């Protein structure tokens, strides 16, 4: 059983992000690390999460060309406009992958910047396990 959310706080430059990232990598836990400074809106944030899911893609061959990789990326890029689409897409992607029986950790670095973007975003992300 894992907690629904964990809030890590402290002074700037004390290594909070490094500790969390190192811990997740050491234990080989599936995770997404999102820097909220780069995500200026709800749409950018949820698309960043969905498009960086640590999914095992066995359908892509090892010998494909770089041009083909770019076409595959553009075709597989997930667009998402709101939280309802995000929850639906996330549930579909996770249930179709090897993550079905594991806990996926979404780490939001500098999440204090999300308070000003959307009033329902942080409460929805904190309740993501229920949704």
Please provide the count of β strands.
Answer: 2
Which structural class do you get from the secondary structure elements? mainly alpha
- Mean pLDDT level: 77
The major β-sheet equals: 2 strands, parallel
Number of helices, counting only DSSP H or I runs of 4 residues or more: 5
Tell me roughly what share of residues is in helical segments.
25-40%
Estimated radius of gyration:
16 Å
Distance between the termini: 17 Å
| Percentage beta strand | 5-15%
Spatial ordering of strands, largest sheet: 1-2
Approximate shape? globular
Helix and strand pattern? HEHHHEH
Low-confidence sequence ranges: 56-71
Pfam families: AAA_16 (PF13191)
Organism: Elysia marginata
Domain Orc1-like AAA ATPase: 2-130
Protein name: Origin recognition complex subunit 5
Please provide a written account of the structure.
It comes from Elysia marginata. InterPro entries: AAA_16 (IPR041664), ORC5 (IPR020796), P-loop_NTPase (IPR027417). GO terms for molecular function: DNA replication origin binding. Residues 2-130 form the Orc1-like AAA ATPase domain. This is Origin recognition complex subunit 5. A two-stranded parallel ribbon has the order 1-2. 39% of the residues lie in helices and 8% in strands. The protein is mainly alpha-helical and 131 residues long. It has helices at 16-26, 42-51, 66-76, 83-95, 121-126, and strands spanning 31-35, 105-109. The longest helix has 13 residues, at 83-95. It is globular, with a radius of gyration of 16 Å. The protein has 5 helices and 2 strands; from the N terminus they run H-E-H-H-H-E-H. Residues 56-71 have low confidence and may be disordered.
